[in-house]
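PROTEIN DESIGN WORKSHEET
SECTION A - STRUCTURE
LENGTH: 166
TOKENS:
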């Protein structure tokens, strides 16, 4: 948050700069394979390894653009962390936060998994809606209508559209 607030380029809405920040500061702490696999649900096993890699790549790009758009809007907000309820042996936790700004507080929770590389985010809940569940519904609809390749094409087109809005 402090990097977002202190960077004049980000404050001016420079989306490529925000994307760069997200790629450096958020993506390395996100388990994109698990996020994509959970968003695909039972359809994950229908995808070939090559399709799975394409899905991870395209979904990562979509999430980067989504995070970047949200971060570019940050101005006077602060984040309050709620007490963590977990035990040392837990391998899956929910970190609960509240974003405080000029309007109503916004609950923002993160699901994290303990991996060999440390804790990694794999899902986010904004105001009661888990990201994976929302995308799972979209992905299931796309796959039922157009197959796995149709979902990949949909994600590619969505990413191209968002990239054009720089």
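SECTION B - SEQUENCE
RESIDUE ASSIGNMENT:
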């Amino acid at each position: 948050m402090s990097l977002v607030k202190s960077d004049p380029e980000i404050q001016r809405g420079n989306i490529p700069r925000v994307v760069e920040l997200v790629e450096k500061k958020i993506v390395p702490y996100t388990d994109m394979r698990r996020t994509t696999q959970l968003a695909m649900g039972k359809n994950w096993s229908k995808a070939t390894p090559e399709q799975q890699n394409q899905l991870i790549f395209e979904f990562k790009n979509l999430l980067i653009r989504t995070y970047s758009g949200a971060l570019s809007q940050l101005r006077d907000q602060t984040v309050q962390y709620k007490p963590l309820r977990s035990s040392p042996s837990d391998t899956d936790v929910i970190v609960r936060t509240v974003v405080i700004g000029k309007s109503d507080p916004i609950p923002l929770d993160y699901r994290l998994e303990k991996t060999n590389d440390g804790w990694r985010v794999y899902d986010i809940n904004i105001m009661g809606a888990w990201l994976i569940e929302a995308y799972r519904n979209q992905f299931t609809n796309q796959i039922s209508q157009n197959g796995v390749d149709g979902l990949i094409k949909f994600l590619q087109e969505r990413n191209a559209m968002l990239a054009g809005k720089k």
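SECTION C - NOTES
The chain has a mean pLDDT of 88.
Strands lie at 78-81, 92-100, 106-115, 118-126, 129-130.
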